[in-house]
Design brief:
Elements: H1 3-25, H2 29-49, H3 55-81, H4 88-110
Helix pairs in contact: 1-2, 1-4, 2-3, 3-4
């Protein structure tokens, strides 16, 4: 797996963590909790994918992470539309990482020469 996805997800984790704290300060506890849960699953699955046992295992872990990205994006959009929060940077980074992760999964499925 490319180091860029690891670096970008770490950057995003820091962004989400800071935003989580600001949501708690605003007493938006439930949505803060939902974002933290979906994000935690993303990070765990991307980390687990690094230690893949097979191509199928690698794709499975990244596919779970991708689903969680979409959930995180959903919560970000709720913040943007319902709570009128300025989440442009967070949303943009999330969308970019979704594209990268989708590309990694597609390339892995289509590549006869699979390397870690």
């Amino acid at each position: 797996m490319e180091n860029t996805i690891q670096a970008r997800t770490l950057k995003f984790w820091i962004m989400v963590s800071k935003y989580y704290l600001s949501l708690k300060t605003k007493k938006h506890y439930e949505i803060a909790s939902q974002i933290l849960k979906s994000w935690t699953s993303i990070w765990a699955n991307i980390r687990e994918a690094q230690w893949w046992q097979s191509r199928k295992d690698f794709i499975s872990k990244l596919s779970i992470a991708l689903k969680e990205w979409y959930e995180t994006l959903y919560w970000i959009e709720i913040l943007e539309q319902w709570f009128e929060e300025n989440v442009k940077e967070l949303k943009n980074e999330c969308e970019q990482i979704v594209k990268i992760l989708t590309t990694i999964i597609k390339n892995t499925k289509n590549n006869d020469k699979f390397y870690q």
